[in-house]
Amino acid sequence: MQQRFDESVQHLVDAGAEIVEVSCPSFTYALATYYLILPSEASSNLAKFDAMRYGLRVPPEDIDDPSAEQVMAATRDAGFGDEVKRRIILGTYALSSGYYDAYYGSAQKVRRLISDEFTAAFEKADVLVSPTAPTTAFKLGDKLDDPMAMYLNDIATIPANLAGIPGMSLPSGLAPEDGLPVGFQILAPAMQDQRLYAVGAALEARLLHAWGAPLLASAPDLTAVAKGTSR
Amino acid sequence: MTQATTDATLSYDEALAAYDPVMGLEVHVELGTKTKMFCGCATTFGAEPNSQVCPVCLGLPGALPVVNEKGVEGAIRIGLALNCEIAQWCRFARKNYFYPDMPKNFQTSQYDEPISYDGWLDVELEDGTVYRVEIERAHMEEDTGKSLHVGGSTGRIHGATHSLVDYNRAGIPLIEIVTKPMVGAGERAPEIARAYVATLRDLIKALGVSDVKMEQGSMRCDVNLSLMPKGSNTFGTRSETKNVNSLRSVERAVRYEIQRHAAVLQSGGAVTQETRHWHEDTGITTAGREKSDAEDYRYFPEPDLVPIAPSRESVEALRATLPEPPAARRKRLQSAWGYSDLEMRDVVNAGLVELIDETVTAGASPAGARKWWSGEIARRANGEGTDVPSYAAQLGVTPAHVVELESLVTAGRLNDSMARQVWEGVLGGEGAPTAVADARGLELVQDTGALDAAVEKVIAANADVAQKVRDGKVQAAGALIGQVMKEMKGQADAAAVRELILAKLT
Predict the structure, then answer these.
(1) pTM value?
(2) Distance between CA atoms of B278 and B241, rounded to whole angstroms?
(3) Where are chain B's structural domains?
């Protein structure tokens, strides 16, 4: 992974980029911040799925003549998956009276620090780059029992979401250790999306030239893989 | 829970002897914007259910709100009229709770950052006393849909087999105006509550931002009330009586809650913190939901809307659009028109201020304008169950008609009783005053010969009365005047007749 990242950085240097390192210490808390703000907002956003106006409606099995609230509860229990329920419960808790300041309120303060650190960083650099994720993709369903590991995979992309700035991810080749694609992330200040396209296009052109073909050409034949596993 | 029990009450005088009421009023006003607060749907009252809805106000997934600029302007103008500070920067907040008539299951409202705060409104009571009501805040929010509970006998949710929801009202802009606790009102608390709501209603109507019709729900009032023992400064537990939706009910609800709280406290009990329902027919409140299992609304800033940051220039521009406050305007007009307090109060209560103002502006005398708009036409309007301005509009009777009628009198063509007949004709749809007078052949007799003859005839026929006048009993001339008028079939100027009689006899 590191190798692919370093290569892409070298391509940008070859294209004329100047590399500087920046420090954003609050990014350490980005994940924790995000997983308080996101579930809080989600708990409220998802409240509209209440079986009243559209979508699923599941009457509770064990109640005759159920109230609207009982129908809402049974429908939401049947319709939402585990991860969604987890986020609704976390978010409801984080917004609750007595916990708001410690959780949602603190998270919003850290969010501001992260945003400020981006602003400072963009005074030194036109764009920021990093790997898109700390590891290559894990197998489908592999981390279902370990939500923390799943959340950790978002660590590089989440600061941009918190700060409200644009980002782009480009395939930068396959990791030598497992042969899976590695993403290269480019971030720009708010309303400066065109910088992403300028840097992304320059990098893509050089990568294509180096590979001699698009990365997709080196992807395994999925039908063959599928047949292989079903046998 | 099924059957509301009637609570004990203490007499009002006993209650006030032992306790001081603390009162807070929350008034919701629906703004009369053409479209809803966060979408472009129409806001027409009484439209076919669910005909004024869209993905935003129905809470469909993926729909995003956009703030209605006119709604914000209306909120700021109300804030300014209530002498409030206007926030430099504020946000909407989500108030989260599940209810079928609320499409998103959160109400977009404001929480700790209201658009206006720290204001006041001076309220004049019947006897002229002015009470200053401190305003805590006036914030923006959206209305909910309307539930109709079907299948029960009461129309309430209890006992209903199912409910229908009309989302036309969902998303209509609301301003919630909250007073600070009113302390020291004493026995006048009910009167002050009523006067406050009435003054607020007039003020908002004058601003033109809402039709403030309590009977249609475009203005709704909640009454918070608690008692503290005389001499104490610690507020008691409060009750919140919801939807007290007429001026008279506001006054009655405050009075009733004072009496009910006093009975609870007097018997050594504790007042329950709860929502109460107001019953217009019986004049009592009954327990609603208890608030002790304090609902947690999980307020947080609305992430889908940008903050509202009105520039100071825009606020000042809106301040410049504020009309003269109704109370000040009434004072100014009363003095200009020379009405007594009683006359002015009658005119205000009958809703005649605008009409009289227009009529005086059009050239009538203030006394004439008041006389013609509050006599026969008021009797008729009342019979039709409406007010004079609406009735006049319906008949097509205008201030110009009053001016014309008055000018016929001052020009000497009509006397008062003839003018009344002409006015009846105008109200009866016979046309403008001159046309009615022509058609009915109403005109004072200018022929002095005919008048002179009539006077001579009456004097001759009533020699005894004539003698009394000759002897100095001038008031006896009245009987003669009446006879002459009769002789002239009413078409004579009574003052001229009187002059003529006195000239002949004294």
Answers:
(1) 0.80
(2) 6
(3) 12-317, 326-439, 448-505
| Strands B116-124 vs B85-86: parallel, antiparallel or unpaired | antiparallel
CATH (domain of A153): 3.90.1300.10
Rounded-to-integer distance, Cα A206 and Cα A199, Å: 11
Nearest to B124 by CA among B334, B358, B356: B334
Helices B376-383, B388-395: inter-axial angle, 10-degree rounding: 90
Closest partner residue to B296 (CB to CB) among A44, A48, A97 is A97
Q: What is the ipTM of this complex?
A: 0.86
- The 3-state DSSP class for residue B225 equals strand
CA distances from residue A60 to A64, A75, A84 in whole angstroms, order as listed: 8, 8, 20
Give the span between the Cα atoms of B59 and A182, in whole angstroms: 39
Average pLDDT over residues A60-69: 89
- In this predicted structure, the answer to whether residue A230 has a pLDDT above a threshold of 50 is no
- At residue A92, what is the residue type? T
Q: Do B300 and A69 touch (CB under 8 A)?
A: no
Q: How do residues A123-144 score in pLDDT, each as one tens digit? A: 999 999 999 999 998 888 888 8
| Alpha carbon distance, N-terminus to C-terminus of chain A | 32
CB contact under 8 A, B165 and A68: no
Share of chain B above pLDDT 90, in %: 69
Strands (E) across B216-283 are located at 219-229, 239-242, 274-279
B59–A contact, CB cutoff 8 A = yes
Interface test with B, best of A37, A38, A49, A50 (most B CBs within 10 A): A50
Domain count, chain A: 1
Is B98 within 8 Å of A47 when comparing Cβ atoms?
A: yes
Q: Which of A146, A143, A225, A131 is nearest to A184 (CA)?
A: A131
Structure tokens at B49: 């259910």
Residues 6 or more apart in contact with residue B63 via CB below 8 angstroms: B54, B55, B56
Give the closest of A40, A52, A54 to B300, CB-based. Answer: A40
Q: Quick one: closest CA in A to B167, which residue?
A: A53
**What amino acid occupies position B435?**
A
Give the structural domain span for A162: 2-230
CA torsion, points A34, A37, A38, A41, in degrees to nearest 10?
Answer: -170
**Cβ within 8 Å, pair B298-A48:** no
Instruction: Name the CATH code of domain B448-505 (choices 1.10.10, 3.90.550, 1.10.3470, 2.60.420).
Output: 1.10.10
Q: Minimal Cα distance from B103: which residue of A? A: A48
The shortest CB-CB distance from B105 to any of A47, A92, A96 is to A47
Closest residue, chain A, to B58 (C-alpha): A53
